[in-house]
Amino acid sequence: MKCSVCGKTVNAEYMYCPHCGSHLNGKEQLQAIIDESFQVLEEVVKGDTMLRLENISNKLVSIEEELDKFLLTAK
Ligand SMILES: [Zn+2]
Predict the structure, then answer these.
(1) 57 CA → ligand 1 middle, Å
(2) pLDDT tens-place string over residues 32-51
(3) Mean pLDDT of all residues belonging to the chain
(4) Across the 75 residues of the chain, what is the mean pLDDT of every consecutive 10-residue run?
(5) Are 57 and 40 in contact (CB under 8 A)?
(6) CA 16 to ligand 1 center in whole angstroms
(7) Is the distance from CB of 34 to CB of 42 less than 8 angstroms?
């Protein structure tokens, strides 16, 4: 078989190409790794965004409370 990266003939039993070191049949595997990485990244970004929104929401609540106090004492 041929290495999909460097195109050199490689023993099909090899897991890695001895010429370029890439994983044989690595295209699908690489794609799977990339997909998985993006999925994880997406989850991290989503999680981070939710956390930020929660922080902002908490701050808004405390600002509202401060405003209420201010309005009460101003009367
Ligand atoms: Zn190779």
Answers:
(1) 53
(2) 888 888 888 888 888 888 88
(3) 85
(4) 88 86 74 84 84 89 90 81
(5) no
(6) 8
(7) no
3-state secondary structure of 24: coil
In the reported structure, the alpha carbon of residue 49 is separated from the centroid of ligand 1 by a whole-number distance in angstroms of: 41
Q: How many CA atoms lie within 13 A of 36 on its CB side?
A: 6
Is the pTM higher than 0.85? The answer reads no
How far away, in angstroms, is 10 Cα from ligand 1 center?
8
Q: What is the Å distance from ligand 1's center to 41 Cα?
A: 29
Residue with tokens 């990485």: 37
